[in-house]
């Protein structure tokens, strides 16, 4: 069964639509209440995902009303635990849920026993101010938190618990400008020079840093790479997977990337091909034959990538960067060393259009006009007139000739 864009609605291999709804817990037994079906209330099979979604909304609304939840005594905490959180968890990917769960709990505890219908514009504004000035969160995370709070009230409107989303009367929190640190070619060379490649683990660290810098793949894309994704003869790297990992015994190699355009094939340079060829042989001698970035034949943790980068940055005495900073570094390398075309950069990064690439990386083209400026020097040829061609000047009277 495949998910559709509508929460709780699925489509099977034959194209048939169905729904599976979580309605909270039974008050008597404590068991989860689920409803599923392939037909609407009139007994007709769903002809589209939207039709199934409409039936889902009808069932949820009727169930909540019949169980006395849609009343003036419903607290925000009850609404979140019984309605919104189960809905949200069922409508997003596991990795998204894992990263949002803590934030949703914080929002729930902040309003807790406040009755849903009694939340005011002032309550919303006070929460907004708290996020920005007292929470200790970054502006980007504060923006995310307030956005999740607004979405929860939108869902309350959908279920007819509220007539309007009162938080929409307040301003959203802007994400703020995020500047991602990256390494120049010289800094990258400094980092490589402190790696001891004769050690198996350090050799893996070298391969990891090199591969991210020279291909620009996202962290989760790199962690998911298997040897069957590389064609060393044709010098191609296939990026068609991402890694969703809780621990080394619970991970999923998802058969898709962050966006549809992220499904791509990247051309490899000869140095990278040579490096990978050697690494494949070394890995095989240690019984590792599946994941490229591995020393145990199990995928690395995302946090391990960050620790490796920080360790070698410290040894090389260069500024530390994030995992995604190596992606930025790749873009900088292509632009500053090879004056790479925006379309080529966009395709290597897996963006759907050059406009997206420019949105995130335009600042890296800041020196791209230096060559043009040199070519412009002395290109315009002329000589000044030896005498004025305007014999009788009759302009501004304050100017004396």
From TrEMBL:
Q: Which residues cross the membrane?
A: none
Query: Known CDD domains for this protein?
Result: INT_ICEBs1_C_like (cd01189)
Looking up SUPFAM superfamilies in the UniProt record yields: DNA breaking-rejoining enzymes (SSF56349)
Ranges for domain Tyr recombinase: 178-377
Pfam families registered for this protein in UniProt: Phage_int_SAM_3 (PF14659), Phage_integrase (PF00589)
Q: Which UniProt keywords apply?
A: DNA integration, DNA recombination, DNA-binding
Q: Which Gene3D superfamilies match?
A: 1.10.150.130, Intergrase catalytic core
Show where the Core-binding (CB) domain sits. 67-157
Question: Which PANTHER family does this one have?
Answer: PHAGE INTEGRASE-RELATED (PTHR30349), PROPHAGE INTEGRASE INTD-RELATED (PTHR30349:SF64)
Question: What name has this protein been given in UniProt?
Answer: Site-specific integrase
